[in-house]
Specification:
Length: about 100
Amino acid sequence: MAATAGDGEPTLGTQAMLAEYTALRAEIDGRTDIQWRVVALQLASAGAIASVALSGTANLALLLLIPASSYLLGCRYIRHDVTGWNVTHPTRLAFVGASGL
């Protein structure tokens, strides 16, 4: 089966695959952007908590908030990981099949 029709235009199947690829790529780009924002938020929050905790007027027990916030933001990072969402994605199921999971 040719990828293009006789007049040089892509076939309907090729157009559908390109549209699906474009949509999946946009979704991956969005998730990657969210991951980088979570990393930036983690660094900013850890720095802010540490600076407040280490200032002379605050309690050092505030440093215990850094591991808790790191854990929570790490969970958000993993939630948007490409391998985490792609396991049951319909496209993967179409290529691998349910038995490949």
